[in-house]
Amino acid sequence: MNIWDLIVALILGLVEGLTEFAPVSSTGHMIIVDDMLLKSAELLESQEVANTFKVVIQFGSVMAAVIVFWERLLSLIGINKRSSSKVPMEGSRLRLTHVIVGLIPAMILGLLFEDFIDTYLFSVETVLIGLVGGAILMILADWKVQREVRTKGSHEGVPLDGINYKQALLIGLFQCIALWPGFSRSGSTISGGVLLGLQYRAAADFTFIMAVPIMAGASAVSLLKKMDVLTADVIPFFAVGFISAFIFAWISIRFFLALINRIKLIPFAIYRILLATVIMVIYISIR
Question: What exactly does this protein do (predicted)?
């Protein structure tokens, strides 16, 4: 392993961390980075090592979300961090059951169509469709809010603790759209939440909280299956990627949550369309 391998690990972790939870499609970004950097690292010449590395950096992003939302995650299982007793946090109405209801649709469809998605939907063309389609969905969500402001004078929206089971289920259905690569889990669910009347911040919070158990579980299972790949010569490479993804995911989540109520979704929609254009140009140039 050389210094360039570690630089590649740092950059790949950065890209994963910054894009995993932002509504911009981490898949779309990884396509660009894969073509430019992934194959340039000696350690990633092995497909098995490359696949395991992607799981490791995704796990780093998930751990950042756990740190950001640890109080809320504890409250979902009835633990009040101030007393460490199993009692609901005062004023908290979001329950673990809301999260489970939101996860069910995508889990069912993901299991039923996993082979089809892996075989037919992971291509540059389908990701481009997902990027543009997701941008349109985000524009529609912002348009709905702007229309409400024009007609009613304001948009109050439902807060996180006001989410009911019907809204949780419908947001879960919007998450199913993200099974199509390029749509982005957060882009689909935040847009869906806003369309269903949630505050932007509430839709983002619920999206990230919902992502933690499913992503953490999937990453943990994948890592357990690939333990034989974690040899001494790749540990430094994986560690750099994990730490990089963790740090930049933490920054990305905190930054996004601080801004979402002010900037809304249109800037991310525009960025997605520009990203789709860049991917299309790169794809055409290398064919």
Answer: Catalyzes the dephosphorylation of undecaprenyl diphosphate (UPP). Confers resistance to bacitracin.
